Structure prediction request, 146 residues.
Amino acid sequence: MSNVHNPLGAPAMPSDEDVEKRAYQRLPKTYPVEVIKLDFPMPKDGIKTRCCDISMGGVCVETGEIPFGVGASCQLKINIPLLNKYAPGFFKVYENDADQYFIALSELAWVKPVGGQFLVGFKFINVHSDQQQALEKLIERAFAQV
Prediction:
């Protein structure tokens, strides 16, 4: 993959060769993310950051600190405007931009230092099926418009 960065600070889109190796397409978006480590006692607040890209399998965030060790279980709360528009069933009623979150139980999968910051990859472990379907449709529509 190229080391060139886009203006949002996210890694460059992967080459066609890299895409073939991935299980999921990555959508380059900078949605706000809150990361809360699942630990006892539960922390009241998480680490607030932004994602670089999101896929059906996980999310990459950029942060100034490494939040926890690889393998740590976390809850991710990702603010995705209009996510409910793509949700099946009841949630379609709420199609406004306010407080539409994709919530997933995740595992910290990898950490990569980049220019004084860290790219941190989280693998989705458990996601509500309605939210999973909504994310899948959002990503499909985004790539269909390219």
In short: Helices lie at 16-21, 129-144.
